[in-house]
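About this split. The held-out portion is used to measure sequence recovery: a designer receives only the structure tokens and must propose an amino acid at every position. Recovery is the fraction of positions where the proposal matches the reference. Here is one held-out target exactly as it appears in the evaluation file.
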């Protein structure tokens, strides 16, 4: 390989790989330049561990003449026999290089390399890619060249790992920030925060369908069960709603004990309130079915659950609210207040789903008028609707 070409690729990486718009494009461009410079590379992989509650890491696989494949791996892989006997386990846990020349009997200790051997691979090299925070990530380099990688090839690869680590770390840090914001404040709010809306006063008015729910009998449940059990119940209970909400275009803004606040944005220019509210109602029905099916064994007893959700539609103020340098990206306004009051009515009426007059008018459905109710903080009584298909259940 030409040292000048390696230096050019290194400089390009240090400069941020600016000509590549995505991580996949950056990886493809690096590999193609390396092949053009004389590195006999047939396959390259980069494995990034992530700060995510469900995903252990992401992998990007380049093969000559093919598009980069992107995949994710969950934490269950750590307990598999395949991972226990994988070269990457040594890289991740010990930070060591692992080489597997197919003509070396020692390579037989890695079953993964049997597949490589069947594909005509002659040499495999896994190298640690340390980040500045001390975490260890990994790269893998594969060739079909007779005799495997030369000493010069391996020296060139080692030269490239450090600049590759720097640019991938920058990309990973931004992605981690996006994932953490999505996890804790929601994707819509996360995008705004990353976009620079980080000061008090950065607020927008938005029309949205509003979802506010809570679990029936939660106080009594918390009193008679261990706190750890209550947390497990809450997690499974929220799963019943979050999947449906996100699946129908909503965003969960906040968990408040057993309460959940979500919004479904309405595009005022398109005028899609009817379509959005229909999706909200479908999410409510799916959540109702999931909560009804939820059975949680506690000793000899199987706990069953009910919840209530209030649906409303209106304008909300959406943005940064808080004190000093502790802010919350949330929504406020009379529409949110009304949804919170309506949610309390679900319990009094023994209903799972209740809707405001505004929501019922936007979402044409077989609604049953439940009457007018005085609402604290509102000058006029509010007409409330329930689903005709629901049979009220008054809890003892």
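Reference sequence for scoring:
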């Amino acid at each position: 390989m030409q040292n000048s070409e390696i230096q050019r690729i290194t400089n390009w990486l240090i400069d941020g790989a600016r000509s590549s718009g995505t991580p996949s494009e950056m990886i493809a461009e690096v590999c193609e330049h390396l092949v053009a410079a004389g590195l006999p590379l047939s396959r390259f992989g980069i494995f990034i561990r992530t700060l995510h509650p469900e995903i252990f890491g992401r992998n990007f696989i380049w093969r000559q003449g093919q598009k980069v494949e992107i995949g994710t791996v969950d934490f269950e892989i750590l307990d598999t026999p395949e991972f226990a006997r994988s070269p990457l386990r040594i890289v991740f846990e010990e930070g060591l290089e692992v080489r597997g020349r197919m003509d070396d009997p020692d390579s037989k200790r890695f079953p993964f390399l049997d597949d490589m051997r069947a594909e005509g691979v002659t040499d495999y090299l896994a190298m640690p890619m340390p980040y500045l925070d001390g975490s260890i990530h990994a790269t893998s380099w594969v060739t079909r060249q007779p005799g495997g990688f030369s000493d010069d090839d391996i020296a060139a690869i080692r030269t490239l790992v450090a600049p590759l680590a720097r640019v991938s770390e920058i990309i990973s840090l931004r992605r981690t920030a996006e994932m953490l914001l999505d996890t804790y404040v929601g994707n819509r709010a996360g995008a705004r925060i990353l976009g620079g809306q980080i000061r008090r006063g950065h607020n927008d008015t938005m029309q949205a369908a509003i979802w506010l729910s809570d679990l029936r009998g939660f106080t009594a449940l918390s009193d008679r069960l261990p706190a750890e059990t209550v947390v497990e119940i809450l997690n499974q209970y929220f799963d019943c709603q979050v999947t449906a909400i996100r699946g129908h275009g909503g965003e969960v803004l906040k968990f408040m004990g057993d309460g959940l606040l979500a919004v479904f944005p309405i595009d005022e220019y398109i005028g899609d309130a009817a379509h959005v509210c229909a999706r909200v109602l479908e999410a409510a029905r799916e959540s109702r079915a999931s909560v009804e099916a939820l059975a949680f064994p506690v000793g000899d007893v199987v706990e069953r659950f009910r919840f209530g959700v209030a649906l409303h539609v209106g304008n909300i103020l959406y943005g940064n609210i808080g004190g000093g340098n502790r802010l919350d990206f949330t929504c406020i306004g009379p529409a949110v207040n009304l949804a919170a009051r309506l949610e309390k009515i679900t319990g009094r009426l023994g209903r799972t789903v209740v809707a405001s007059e505004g929501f019922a008018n936007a979402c044409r459905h077989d609604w049953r008028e439940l009457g007018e109710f005085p609402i604290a903080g509102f000058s006029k009584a509010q007409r409330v609707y329930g689903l005709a298909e629901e049979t009220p259940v008054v809890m003892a």
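Annotator remark: Residues 95 and 134 are 10 Å apart (CA to CA).
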